[in-house]
Specification:
With about 600 residues, the chain is α+β, with helices and mostly antiparallel strands. The chain folds into three domains: about 180 residues, Aminopeptidase (3-Layer(aba) Sandwich), CATH 3.40.630; about 180 residues, 3-Layer(aba) Sandwich (Aminopeptidase), CATH 3.40.630.30; about 200 residues, Gcn5-related N-acetyltransferase (GNAT) (Aminopeptidase, 3-Layer(aba) Sandwich). Helix content is about 30%, strand content about 30%. The chain is built from 18 helices and 24 strands. The strands form three sheets. It has an eight-stranded mixed β-sheet with strand order 1-2-3-4-5-6-8-7, sandwiched between helices. Strands 9-10-11-12-13-14-16-15 form an eight-stranded mixed β-sheet, sandwiched between helices. Helix 1 crosses helix 3 and helix 14 crosses helix 16. The N and C termini lie far apart (about 95 Å).
Length: about 600
C-alpha cells in the first residue's frame, strides 16, 4: 500500500469490482484506452484475479496494478480509479492510469501516478518511466507534465484505434528519469483572451464557424505563409485546429485567432513562438496572417500591439522579432505602425518550396526597453569592421557619419525607425522628387526606405559614401537628405547629391545643409574632415532648384552633356555639370534661409 495527500494505492480486490465495471463502461476512459478493459462483473473479477496473482509472484516483468482510493469522509476509503506500470525488463517502465468520472478534476491522477512512480524508482529500481497517450488526450498530458515528464514527441501511428475505427492513431510519448525532479520541467502556457477596440485575440475553437472561416484562406495568404496554413480541406482544417494548443502546452508559444471585436468572426492568426530557444532566452518571434475578410481594417497592427504588450508583460520577454517577405509591403507597414523597427534585409532567405524562387527576407524587432528601441542599432563588431573578406567587400574600418550642425539644422545618420521611413516615403513619392530621381523604385514603400538606410550605413562603414539626414534642430524632424558618393581616397573626389522633403522647400534648408557638407568635405583630415580636393554635381537642365543650390554653395558650372539624362516621364534633356575645388573661395553665407 502507498498513500499520500488523501489518496492511496492498494492491490485490486473484490470490493473494487463495481468501480472497475463503471470505469470500463465510461465512454471517455474507453475512448482514450486508459481503463482496464472490462465490461461486466465477470471480466472485472478476472482482472482482479490477474492483478492479485501478479502481486503474489512479484516477477520483474509482471505489471504493477493498483486501484486508486480516496478518502470518503467518515466512511473510510472508496475506489476512484486505476494506475499501473509495465516493466520492460531493461530498467524502463510504461505507465497508465484512469480516473472514475465521479473523481475527475481533483488531482487524483497526478497524486496516484506520483505514488506509482515512487514505487517504480525506489522499490523496483526502474531508471526510466515512459508515458504515452493518443494525440488530443490533454488531461493525460497535463498529468504527465505536472510530474516532470519531458516535452512529448508526436509519433505517427503510435496508438491503436478504438470502437469501429481500429486503425492506428498518432500518439504522444514522453519520459521521466529516476534522478529528475517530479515537478514541471517546462511552462504550460495559457492562451488568454486579449481585447482591443477593433479585434479580439482569443483561442481558436474546434467548431463549425472557425472551420468555415479557415476554408476561405486565399492565394495571397498562401503566397507568403503557405507552409503554416491549414490545408484547403475540411479534414485538413480540423487537424490544424486540433493542433493549435501544442505550442502553449509545450511552453514554446501561443497562437491566437484574430477575431472581430463585434461579431467574434475569425479574421486571421497571431502567434508568438520560439520562446524556449536556448540561445535566445527571453526572446520570441511574432507571426501572423489574415483571411480576406480581415484585410484593410488595421487588424494586424492592433493584434501586434495586443500580443507584444502581453509578451512583454505577462510572459516577461524583452525582445520580439518578425520576418516578412521583401514583397509583402502590407506586412512591413503593419509592423512599423506597431512600433517595430527594421533590422536587416537578408538576401534570398525566403524560399517556400524545394528549389523554389528565392526572395529576400526583411527582419524587424521590437524591444521592451523603449530607450534601447529608440537608440541607434548596433553596428558590426570590430572584428568585422577591421577585416576584409577574400573578395575585399567587407568593412575596412568605420570612419562613421559625423554629426554636422548649421543654421538650426542637424545633419546626422538616418535611423531605422517608422517615423524616419515615413518621411522618406513622403519625399520619394512626391512628383518633383520622382521626376528627377527616376531610379527610385515604384511604388516606394517603407521597406525600400529602410533598405536605403541600411545600404547607406553599410556604404559609410566601407568608406564608399556618406549620407546625412537633414533634421530640424529641436524637433529632429527629417527635412531632406545630402550625400557624398563615389568617395575616392586616391583622387580625393566625391559627388554630392541632395533632395528636400516637400515641406522643406523654399526655405534654404538644402542650401545650408550642402554648404555644411562641403565644409566637412574640404576640411583637412587632421581636423576630422575628409580632405577632398574636388566635389562635383550633376543636375538635369530643367532642375533649376538644384542648380540654384549648387551656385549658392560656390559650385561652378563646368560643362554640359547633351541629351544625357532621361527623366521619369521619359523626357530626355541635357545634364549640367558643376564642381568646386578645395582652393575655391568660400561663398558668402546664404541669405535665403
Amino acid at each position: 500500500m502507498r498513500d499520500g495527500d488523501g489518496v492511496r494505492l492498494v492491490p485490486p480486490g473484490p470490493e473494487h469490482v463495481r468501480m472497475l465495471v463503471g470505469l470500463g463502461q465510461d465512454e471517455l476512459a474507453r475512448r482514450w484506452g486508459d481503463a482496464v478493459p472490462v465490461r461486466d462483473e465477470t471480466q472485472a473479477r478476472a482482472a482482479v484475479a490477474v492483478a492479485s496473482q501478479g502481486w503474489a509472484e512479484q516477477r520483474p516483468w509482471t505489471p504493477r496494478r493498483w486501484v486508486v482510493e480516496t478518502r470518503a469522509g467518515d466512511d473510510g476509503w472508496q475506489g476512484a480509479g486505476t494506475v499501473e506500470y509495465r516493466p520492460d525488463g531493461h530498467g524502463g517502465v510504461e505507465v497508465g492510469f484512469a480516473v472514475h468520472p465521479e473523481h475527475r478534476g481533483h488531482g487524483v491522477a497526478t497524486t496516484a501516478l506520483g505514488l506509482a512512480l515512487g514505487y517504480a524508482f525506489e522499490q523496483d529500481g526502474a531508471a526510466l518511466a515512459r508515458w504515452r497517450a493518443e494525440v488530443g488526450n490533454w488531461a493525460s498530458r497535463r498529468v504527465a507534465w505536472r510530474l516532470g515528464f519531458s516535452v512529448p514527441q508526436r509519433v505517427r501511428g503510435l496508438m491503436p484505434g478504438w470502437g469501429e475505427d481500429t486503425g492506428p492513431r498518432d500518439g504522444w510519448i514522453a519520459t521521466l528519469a529516476r534522478e529528475e525532479p517530479r515537478r514541471p520541467a517546462y511552462p504550460w502556457l495559457r492562451t488568454p483572451v486579449l481585447r482591443g477596440e477593433r479585434v479580439v485575440l482569443r483561442p481558436w475553437r474546434e467548431d463549425a464557424d472557425d472551420a468555415a472561416a479557415l476554408l476561405s484562406v486565399d492565394d495571397l495568404a498562401r503566397s507568403f505563409v503557405g507552409p503554416v496554413l491549414p490545408p484547403a480541406t475540411q479534414e485538413g482544417v480540423a487537424s490544424w485546429l486540433a493542433a493549435q494548443r501544442e505550442g502553449a502546452a509545450g511552453g514554446t508559444g501561443l497562437r491566437w485567432c484574430i477575431a472581430d471585436a463585434e461579431d467574434d468572426a475569425a479574421l486571421g492568426l497571431m502567434s508568438v513562438f520560439g520562446l524556449r530557444s536556448p540561445f535566445e532566452m527571453g526572446c520570441g518571434t511574432v507571426g501572423y496572417w489574415l483571411l480576406p475578410s480581415g484585410r484593410g481594417r488595421g487588424a494586424v497592427t492592433e493584434a501586434l500591439t495586443l500580443a507584444s504588450r502581453y509578451a512583454f508583460g505577462e510572459l516577461g520577454l524583452h525582445r520580439l522579432a518578425a520576418d516578412a517577405d521583401v514583397r509583402n509591403a502590407a506586412s512591413h507597414r503593419a509592423l512599423l505602425r506597431a512600433g517595430f523597427r527594421w533590422v536587416a534585409t537578408e538576401a534570398q532567405a525566403c524560399v517556400y518550396t524545394q528549389d523554389g524562387e528565392r526572395e529576400d527576407n526583411v527582419r524587424f524587432e521590437l524591444l521592451a526597453d523603449a530607450e534601447v528601441q529608440q537608440a541607434p542599432r548596433p553596428g558590426p563588431p570590430a572584428s568585422v569592421l577591421g577585416s576584409a573578406g577574400v573578395d575585399g567587400t567587407d568593412g575596412t574600418g568605420d570612419r562613421g557619419i559625423p554629426t554636422l550642425r548649421t543654421d538650426g539644422l542637424v545633419l546626422r545618420p538616418w535611423r531605422s525607425d517608422p517615423g524616419e521611413a515615413d518621411r522618406m516615403v513622403e519625399a520619394a513619392t512626391d512628383p518633383v522628387t520622382r521626376q528627377y530621381l527616376p531610379e527610385l523604385p515604384d511604388p516606394y514603400t517603407s521597406a525600400e526606405a529602410l533598405g536605403f538606410i541600411d545600404r547607406a550605413l553599410l556604404a559609410a562603414r566601407r568608406g564608399e559614401q556618406l549620407t546625412w539626414c537633414v533634421a530640424e534642430e529641436g524637433s529632429d524632424v527629417p527635412l531632406g537628405n545630402v550625400s557624398l558618393s563615389g568617395l575616392d581616397r586616391g583622387t580625393r573626389t566625391a559627388e554630392v547629391g541632395y533632395w528636400a522633403h516637400p515641406q522643406a522647400r523654399g526655405r534654404g534648408v538644402v542650401t545650408s545643409a550642402v554648404a555644411a557638407v562641403l565644409r566637412h568635405a574640404f576640411a583637412a583630415e587632421e581636423s576630422y574632415g575628409l580632405g577632398l580636393r574636388r566635389v562635383f554635381l550633376r543636375a538635369a537642365a530643367s532642375n533649376v532648384a538644384s542648380q540654384r543650390v549648387a551656385r549658392a554653395v560656390g559650385m561652378r558650372e563646368v560643362g554640359r552633356d547633351r541629351l544625357a539624362e532621361m527623366l521619369r516621364d521619359g523626357t530626355v534633356e541635357d545634364m549640367v555639370r558643376f564642381d568646386r575645388l578645395a582652393e575655391d573661395a568660400e561663398p558668402s553665407a546664404p541669405t535665403d534661409r
